[in-house]
From TrEMBL:
Transmembrane domains' residue ranges: 519-538
PANTHER family: COPPER TRANSPORT PROTEIN CTR1, SOLUTE CARRIER FAMILY 31 COPPER TRANSPORTERS
GO molecular function: copper ion transmembrane transporter activity
Database matches in Pfam families: Ctr
Keyword Ion transport carried by entry: yes
Taxonomic placement: Eukaryota, Viridiplantae, Chlorophyta, core chlorophytes, Chlorophyceae
Name of this protein: Copper transporter
Family: Belongs to the copper transporter (Ctr) (TC 1.A.56) family. SLC31A subfamily.
Subcellular localization, as worded in the UniProt entry: Membrane
Membrane topology note: Multi-pass membrane protein
Key words, A-Z: Copper, Copper transport, Ion transport, Membrane, Transmembrane, Transmembrane helix, Transport
């Protein structure tokens, strides 16, 4: 690419993207120790409101990056791409059109000039830098260039203000050259206790960049799930009734940096948020955006999901099984809080779900509680292991989930008629057995019309609960049904028919059992009603078959 090999002739028209520049500048200007750089102060002002900065040249993003990397001789890794892109052999024309801001004073020059101008004065604009100057180091207060500009605005003739005068000549209208603008742009990001910061707003672009940084490092954080859903479908994907600002990047930062246990010391929080919203801050934004307080923390979502999946295997557990098996602190599945909510939505009475229930009681429209069709994740019906009337519910198949009264009525009749069919199959099976007895008896009479002797007490015929036994003496002359050891075509066909009926009746029987085990009251009554009606429709026919079989057996025994 042109970043790594900019000497190619094809790179002449290449443009280093604004997104990449923003990432680099955030890496440079948000790191503790670099916030005092004049180019970083200009960067923050441009990101807040570029039209009020007063100089489009100063707000050229690549020029500001070049100023930090070249004029300040920064060795930060955030300068690596720029130094490669704009090396001495570079063919990228953007590098020459967006050169470093040569008239913007360096941090060392500003600190030295202000220290010399202050002399023994320790008040006013000189006060913030005293501890640094005492240690013979560059003043590293975040609004260093603003302090210097405030001094020179009232003392422009001072020999210590040469850099200030040069800057204002090169960039007419620059906010640093106007006392009113200087006050308006006092660096509230790092000095938030000033009353002038009351209406300060952290630039949305910077807040978004900070959230991206946080969610790149730990994408499975609860707040990052909110961020991704907001980016994909907007607020409608969240549908929170308690946090109407849920999709605001600053609100998401509050959710992660303040409300999510253990995340406050991440780089994206330390860049600006922690300082801006520390105790005593005057920035209204910190109190206006309170974050999604009902959301389970990342630690809660992880530990509770792990506990559930340890107790039983459920849909979704496979996303985390390998991480938990490896004893990792967190499951790396990006939507960890969605997984926890899905598990509790499926079985809400588990002991690990009070946190989820509390969230949904406080914010019932939240997508983690409803799993609406608009959400990026859809859960199945809840599973209840006791009789209930809840809809929807799983019925035999994952796709059969009655949700409306009409569909529930359809499920009732489906299970009812399946039960009737089961009873009918039982009748057919009984007919088959009786038919076999009749045929075998007929064959026996044709082959051996005379009686044969059998030991006393041996069952010689048993059909439908009837039996004939020898009762007089040790032997009794009776007709018996004998089954040859060598199967005939007829007996093979009967065995196949018997196998088919056993397959059908056992399959339907187990389906009915599993249907009742969904514990839905409607389905339970549909099955037992089917058995009741089936007994009325087919019971008498079964008894008749049994009676005919008994008559046949008795005739064979006399």
């Amino acid at each position: 690419s042109c970043v790594t090999n900019p000497s190619l002739s094809t790179c002449m028209s290449y443009t280093y993207s604004d997104t990449s520049i923003t990432t680099d500048m955030q890496g440079l200007c948000s790191v503790v120790g670099n916030t005092y750089l004049p180019a970083c102060s200009a960067w923050r002002a441009c990101m807040t409101n570029s039209s009020s900065v007063g100089s489009s040249t100063v707000c050229n993003k690549l020029s500001l990056l070049a100023t930090v990397c070249v004029n300040e001789s920064s060795t930060s890794t955030s300068c690596n791409n720029y130094k490669s892109l704009c090396s001495t052999t570079s063919m990228v024309s953007q590098c020459s059109t967006s050169a470093p801001l040569s008239h913007l004073p360096t941090s060392a020059g500003v600190s030295g000039a202000l220290q010399a101008a202050c002399g023994s004065t320790t008040t006013g604009v000189c006060a913030p830098c005293q501890s640094y100057w005492t240690s013979n180091t560059v003043c590293k207060v975040s609004n260093l260039i603003e302090l210097y500009s405030q001094y020179c605005y009232g003392n422009s003739g001072s020999s210590y203000c040469t850099s200030f005068n040069s800057m204002c000549s090169a960039y007419p209208g620059l906010y640093l050259c106007n006392n009113v603008s200087i006050a308006a742009y006092s660096d509230c990001m790092f000095n938030p206790t000033s009353s002038s910061c009351m209406n300060y707003q952290y630039p949305t672009a910077l807040a978004t960049s900070d959230v991206i940084s946080l969610c790149t490092a730990m994408p499975y954080m609860s707040g990052c799930t909110i961020f991704r859903n907001c980016n994909s479908s907007g607020f409608s994907a969240i549908d929170s009734s308690t946090d109407l600002n849920a999709c605001n990047p600053f609100d998401i930062m509050t959710t992660i940096c303040t409300l999510d246990t253990g995340m406050r010391m991440m780089g994206g929080c330390r860049r600006a948020y922690n300082t801006m919203c520390a105790a005593g801050t005057m920035i209204k934004e910190c109190s206006n955006y309170t974050g999604m307080a009902v959301l389970p923390t990342t630690t809660q979502a992880n530990s509770l999901s792990k506990s559930i999946c340890t107790e039983m295997t459920m849909d979704g557990c496979s996303y985390c099984d390998s991480d938990w098996a490896a004893n990792k602190t967190f499951c790396s599945y990006n939507d960890l809080v969605v997984l926890y909510s899905y598990l509790c939505y499926s079985m809400p009475d588990m002991t690990q779900c009070p946190t989820w229930k509390a969230m949904c009681a406080a914010d019932p429209t939240l997508f983690l509680c409803t799993f609406s069709s608009n959400s990026s994740y859809t859960a199945g019906p809840a599973m209840m292991m006791y009789f209930n009337t809840q809809t929807p519910f799983y019925l035999l198949w994952k796709t059969w989930t009655p949700k409306t009264p009409g569909k529930l009525c359809g499920a009732f009749f489906a299970m009812f008629f399946l039960t009737l069919f089961y009873e009918f199959c039982q009748l057919v099976k009984a007919n088959l057995e009786a038919y076999e007895k009749r045929i075998l008896a007929s064959i026996r009479r044709q082959k051996d019309p005379n009686s044969v002797s059998n030991p006393k007490g041996v069952v010689v015929a048993e059909v439908g609960g009837c039996e004939s036994r020898a009762s007089n003496g040790n032997t009794e002359s009776v007709n018996t049904q004998t089954f040859g050891l060598h199967p005939t075509l007829f007996t093979i066909m009967l065995d196949i028919a018997r196998m088919i009926m056993a397959f059908i009746t056992s399959g339907i029987g187990y389906l009915l059992m599993l249907g009742v085990m969904c514990f839905n009251v409607t389905i339970f009554f549909s099955v037992i009603t089917g058995f009741g009606i089936g007994a009325v429709l087919f019971g008498r026919l079964k008894m008749r078959i049994g009676s005919d079989a008994c008559s046949l057996s008795e005739a064979m025994c006399h």
